[in-house]
Amino acid sequence: MPIFNGGCLCGQVGIAVRGEPKRIGICHCTDCRQESGSAFTYFAVWPADQFETRGETLQYSGRSFCSRCGSRLYSANDKEAEVKLGILRDAPTGLAPTYELWVKRREPWLSPISSAEQFDGDRA
Prior knowledge:
The chain is mostly beta strands. It has one domain: glutathione-dependent formaldehyde- activating enzyme (gfa). It is 6% helix and 40% strand. The strands form 2 sheets. Strands 6-7-8-9-4-3-10-11 form an 8-stranded mixed sheet. A 3-stranded antiparallel sheet has the order 1-2-5, with no helix packed on it. The termini are far apart.
């Protein structure tokens, strides 16, 4: 069973996820663009019992980030954890998106991922 480790920029917060993710996506929605400061967010979702975290985080609207350096990290509840894949230590991860959300907001200079299912908004 693979284990993926990651954390914030300053090292105060660490995460580990075990096994393969349930799904891997890219989102171009306004919230993800503003939250990431980029044109999209790249994330994967694991069952909550395969997710561990250590260190102090703060939350805003369900999103957890480092209280010291501000790195955006994950969103988690009692069922699943959505991890920002850019925080994983070993890149490239080999985790390829299987879907893209909010493609109607995708920048025109970004090509669609040919192997990923495309959604104009959220997944149906």
